[in-house]
Design brief:
Blueprint: E1 3-5, E2 15-17, H1 20-25, E3 32-33, E4 37-38, E5 43-45, E6 50-53, E7 56-57, E8 63-64, E9 68-72, E10 78-82, E11 89-92, E12 108-110, E13 128-129, H2 138-144
Parallel strand pairs: 2-12, 12-13
Antiparallel strand pairs: 1-5, 2-3, 4-11, 6-9, 7-8, 9-10, 10-11
């Protein structure tokens, strides 16, 4: 019911997030993979079927996250995350993308301290792991590997 398109200067699906919010709202394999795209390029068909979920941040005194997780009201598919702290970005879930995505030469597994015990990371030889947030942004990862579009 919802279709969207977006331009992504950082299109490699390399960040596997194991936090409880991602794995419960969009996780397959115990994680979610978000891309880095430009919010100004987001085009939506079927916007009337969009719903927004704002997570409860239990580690912050049950505060409500400012991040807006968009999903389809008809099928429940997790579509993207937008956060007003970084209004120029939108983070589509790789699983919601129908066009081919480039295969990353390495992956970053983040928020591993929050992973479900059954979600054993499948690590490649160059993969990096973090109990919390990684030490580089989406843009920095793409730049380090010469993968900027």
């Amino acid at each position: 019911a919802v279709r969207f398109s977006v331009e992504a200067p950082h299109p490699y699906p390399f960040n596997l997030c194991y936090c409880s919010i991602c794995r419960k709202t969009a996780g397959t394999g115990g994680f979610a993979i978000n891309l880095g795209a430009l919010s100004a390029t987001l085009k939506i068909e079927g916007e009337e079927h969009l719903c927004t979920y704002r997570a409860i941040l239990h580690d912050e005194g049950d505060a409500i996250s400012p991040g807006e997780r968009k999903f389809c009201a008809l099928c429940g598919t997790a579509l993207w995350l937008w956060d007003p702290r970084w209004p120029e970005l939108v983070h589509p879930h790789a699983g919601a993308i129908d066009t081919p995505l480039p295969i990353p030469p390495e992956r970053t597994h983040l928020m591993l301290a929050s992973r479900a015990n059954w979600a054993e990371p499948c690590l490649g030889p160059k993969d990096r792991t973090f109990d919390d947030y990684p030490d580089e942004s989406l843009a920095e990862w793409h730049q380090r590997l010469g993968l900027e579009s």
